[in-house]
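User: I'm preparing a small set of examples for a lab meeting where we compare how different chains pack in three dimensions. I only have the primary sequence for this one, and I'd like the structure in token form so I can line it up with the others. Please keep the answer compact; I'll paste it straight into my notes.
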Amino acid sequence: MRYEVKAIKGAGVASLSIEAASDADAALRAQGMGYKVLTVRPAAALVRIRFGRRATFPLVLFTQELLALLGAGLPLLEAMETLVEKEHRPEARKVLEGVIRILTEGQTLSAALEQYPAVFPALYVATVRASERTGDLPEALGRYVAYQSQVEAIKKKIISSAIYPVLLMVVGGLVVIFLMGYVVPRFAGVYESMGSNLPFFSRVLLAWGELLNAHALAMSVAVLGALAGLAYAVLHPGFKRWFGTRLWAIPWVGERMRVYQLARFYRTVGMLLSGGTPVVNALDMVSGLLQPTLRGQLQRAVKEIREGYALSRAMDGNGLTTPVASRMLRVGEGTGQMGEMMERIAVFHEEEMARWVDWFTRLFEPILMAVIGLVIGAIVVLMYMPIFELAGSIR
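Assistant: Understood. Below is the structure token output for the 395-residue chain.
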């Protein structure tokens, strides 16, 4: 759940938006970022309908442009000033000017970015802070751009695979609504004089048509209300958590969701370790990416690592690995290339997820088409069955 946190850092008050399991967890996360917490409250749950595009800071584009300027040999401050000169969006320009002001006061880039938590996530700030210790800021920025591109590619793959089944369900649902709400009531009036001579299922179908004719306005309002309630529930964080918990309870689906979350988790931790972030700090930083159950398992693993257990043993003992990941973690410990090994684990599982999504959509689409066709066909046959019987009696 997302929480709004008001906190103090230095001489100013900041408003943070933090994803956490509870208000206490949100406060701990803010304190871990160096803030003194004033208030914590859940983010507004009301659904707001916005017309036009929402103004957001183009973080990936900013990173790519900054990386290009640094690669061309410009000093950091001059590169930031160049980005301000070309920026035409007022919100983004204000953020960049604030970062430049903090840089001119002698503070580091990570300290400047940390003053804008709504724009620069903790993961981004940690990547920059780690690079400041090693002096390889361009490499760290390039690593973040690559990470974000890979994460977005996986998301787009899943979304694009879901578009066609959703479109099928929407079109099929609209056809069924049209048949049941318009065509069937018309047939009910035609067959009304035939009375009990109709087949049983045809009588049931036509009784529905007569009900719609008698209460058309009330039924329309009820349908619209149900659709509005469904839309509100889908967008409500509480419903999302409830629905996600139910999906996790399905063995086959829940295991795939677990693998997807672990893949994202390993990729993020791998990027932080490659940038020089200590392993315990990296694990604490990315715990918000995991589902609450896995988050608790990660906390136990971090505790064991602090007590001296090997990373592979702590992760494996708390259910945060797969058989492949467990073996690769042990190899990473032996070679000392744990960051690179975690990124390889993520690549392996992302490719596995991509194959599974492709297989599932290939299987689900024809099944969905067959079900929709059967429903529509059954409605049409039941409507025309009395006509078939009448034609048979005439012969």
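A couple of notes for your slides: Strands lie at 2-9, 12-19, 36-42. The longest strand covers residues 2-9.

User: Perfect, thanks.
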